[in-house]
Amino acid sequence: MKSKEALTMKTLETKLLITEKKKEVKLAKVEARREDAKRKAELDLRMLALKQTKAMKDLLAEERDIMMMRTDGMDEDQLAWWKETKADIMARKKAAREARDASAQGVEEMGILSLITGKPGASGFGSASTAEQVTAGIDASALTVVVTGASSGIGLETARVFALRGAPVIIAARNTEAASEAKKCITESNPTARLDVLKLDLSSLKSVRAFVDQFNSMNLPLNILINNAGVMLCPFQLSEDNVEMQFATNHLGHFLLTNLLLDNMKATAKSTGIEGRIVNLSSIAHHHTSPKGIQFDELNDKKIYNDKMAYGQSKLANILHAKELSRRLREEGDNITVNSVHPGLIMTNLMRHSLAMMKAIRVVTYMMWKTAPQVILRAVHWI
Ligand SMILES: NC(=O)c1ccc[n+]([C@@H]2O[C@H](COP(=O)([O-])OP(=O)(O)OC[C@H]3O[C@@H](n4cnc5c(N)ncnc54)[C@H](OP(=O)(O)O)[C@@H]3O)[C@@H](O)[C@H]2O)c1
């Protein structure tokens, strides 16, 4: 009997011990959770403080930049423009980050890798597709197109593919002999191509006006304007209007041309109900320019001329032109879209002033270089 009581006592003691142990484990867990929550709150606070310090650092850096720009002679309007542009860039970076995140979640986006590999994007086309593939089956016979600098390179291929899809195309070129040769080449493979060659030297404002007069005298509508012509890295030279040659050709000439053709484009879009398109061929080289933007006061200064910065500046002007024109047309309710595009890399006559350097660059970036039919895809894509 005694031993039975002893056994019951032992069992009770064991049960008590187990219950105690369970309580201890539970308490330890609660304590650990409390510690974790405390640590997380501390970390949150530290992260917030870091964020605030970074925001403070950005604010101070901005204040310092503004001070320096004021000292450099920037007026309040220019400063306001600088601030607005900076805010715009930040917003774009944020959007790009968000797009990248979305991409990571399965939404397709064309990145640098797809540019190299040619992997098709959501549209089914990639950087290895050609303009002919993208426009297959499209009837463009109702669209009149002007392509500047269509006597060679990207412009020539653009004109060829538009003509192939039935569009009447005006080849606007400074060298009409080369342009006529280009026209002959296109018509040999496509006898029904509707092509006209008109003289246009974009480095001369007089020539731009003369081109528009001639175009207007043809009484044609205008749906699409491809501002493609360009020069790159040429030695310092002034145009006949006394403007640095790359800026005069790549931007000023196209700026005037677009303005003079705009009424026709607006009227065409209105009467046909077909959205008009303006495409400015820009370049990734627009990054290579003064951090203060376009230096209008120093454009023609031969002493500080840098051929690469001058090209970058002219290509930045192409983008800003497209952006502002697009905003104004939207505001006025005109049915015309304006885009600027970096077409990709292709060895063309554009490299004539920098052939050795471009060939050297191509050696290390060869995977990113394309053929003309592939490059033009990007321009066509934006149409
Ligand atoms: N190739 C690339 O890798 C690349 C990269 C980024 C951006 N881009 C841009 O793409 C566009 C086309 O370049 P591309 O590579 O096709 O070069 P391209 O073969 O040299 O073609 C340029 C065209 O512009 C014409 N042009 C030059 N100055 C002119 C002027 N004052 N008035 C009228 N036409 C003029 C040229 O005529 P001439 O034959 O008489 O010189 C030529 O027909 C350019 O805007 C360039 O900045 C090209």
Automatic annotation (TrEMBL):
<dbReference type="Pfam" id="PF00106">
    <property type="entry name" value="adh_short"/>
</dbReference>
<dbReference type="InterPro" id="IPR055280">
    <property type="entry name" value="TIC32"/>
</dbReference>
<comment type="similarity">
    <text>Belongs to the short-chain dehydrogenases/reductases (SDR) family.</text>
</comment>
<dbReference type="InterPro" id="IPR002347">
    <property type="entry name" value="SDR_fam"/>
</dbReference>
<dbReference type="InterPro" id="IPR036291">
    <property type="entry name" value="NAD(P)-bd_dom_sf"/>
</dbReference>
<protein>
    <submittedName>
        <fullName>Uncharacterized protein</fullName>
    </submittedName>
</protein>
